């Protein structure tokens, strides 16, 4: 059953500064797009998500689907950003995470509060703390027929420093209903 028509767009990073209680935090602004169905026979939806990533993390385009993997500048770990229009589209990413990090397990779901989410409209954010040999968290942001998955798994000693920055990353996530007006990157993935 075809649940989506993924398309990938990840623009070169642009520097974004998030102003927080501890002062400005620089993030690299990135973007992903997807075309897919929320319901099997529903209309094809186009969604775009913009988000900030920690500076210095090196991107690698995913081979399939609308996702982006980043690698830490000091080899401390990885981050995965993925967008979906249906929960079934996240299965391959979750399976991959379980295979790559078998000694680290996500804990029970915890509700999160993020800007721009309207719970009365069905929007929500959920955190799963990752424990084991490596630490981190998985965060799912659901907004209007779109799901953004952010999974961060790093060496235990790196998590204490990275954790506060990830809070800024989650706050930077914006889900847009319209596609980008920017030209497509040559490595776009599109199945129709």
Polypeptide structure, described:
The chain is mainly beta. It has two helices and twelve strands, in the order E-E-E-E-E-E-E-H-E-E-E-E-H-E. The protein has helices at about 90-100, 155-170, and strands at about 5, 15-20, 25-35, 45-55, 60, 65-70, 75-85, 105-110, 125-130, 135-140, 145-155, 175. Strands 5-6-7-11-10-9-8 form a seven-stranded antiparallel β-sheet, with helices on both faces. Strands 1, 2, 3, 4 and 12 form a five-stranded antiparallel β-sheet that branches. The model is unreliable at about 1-20 and about 185-190 (pLDDT under 50).
Give the strand line-up of the largest sheet: 5-6-7-11-10-9-8
Largest sheet: 7 strands, antiparallel
Gross morphology is globular
Helix content: 10-25%
Extract low-pLDDT stretches: 1-21, 184-192
The average pLDDT is 80
User: Compute the gyration radius: what is it?
Assistant: 16 Å
Order of helices and strands: EEEEEEEHEEEEHE
Oligomer: single chain
Q: How much β-strand is present in the residues? A: over 45%
Report the span from N to C terminus.
13 Å
By DSSP (H or I, 4+ residues per run), the number of helices equals 2
Strand element count:
12
| Structural class label | mainly beta
Task: Please outline the helices and strands.
Elements: E1 4-5, E2 14-20, E3 23-37, E4 44-53, E5 58-61, E6 67-71, E7 77-84, H1 91-100, E8 104-112, E9 124-132, E10 134-142, E11 147-155, H2 156-172, E12 174-176
Antiparallel strand pairs: 1-3, 2-3, 3-4, 4-12, 5-6, 6-7, 7-11, 8-9, 9-10, 10-11
């Amino acid at each position: 059953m075809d649940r989506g028509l993924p398309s990938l767009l990840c623009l070169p990073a642009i520097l974004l500064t998030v102003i927080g209680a501890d002062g400005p935090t620089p993030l690299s602004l990135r973007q992903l797009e997807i075309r897919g169905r929320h319901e099997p026979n529903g209309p094809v939806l186009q969604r775009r998500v913009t988000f900030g990533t920690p500076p210095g993390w090196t991107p690698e385009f995913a081979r399939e689907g609308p996702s982006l993997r980043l690698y830490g500048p000091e080899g401390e770990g990885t981050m995965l950003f993925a967008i979906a229009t249906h929960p079934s589209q996240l299965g391959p990413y979750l399976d991959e995470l379980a295979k790559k990090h078998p000694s680290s397990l996500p804990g029970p779901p915890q509700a999160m509060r993020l800007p721009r989410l309207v719970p009365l409209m069905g929007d929500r954010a959920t955190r799963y703390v990752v424990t084991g040999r490596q630490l981190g968290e998985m965060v799912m942001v659901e907004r209007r027929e779109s799901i953004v998955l952010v999974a961060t798994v790093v060496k235990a000693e790196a998590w204490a420093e990275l954790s506060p920055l990830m809070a800024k990353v989650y706050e930077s996530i914006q889900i847009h209903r319209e596609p980008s007006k920017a030209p497509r990157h040559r490595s776009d993935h599109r199945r129709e």
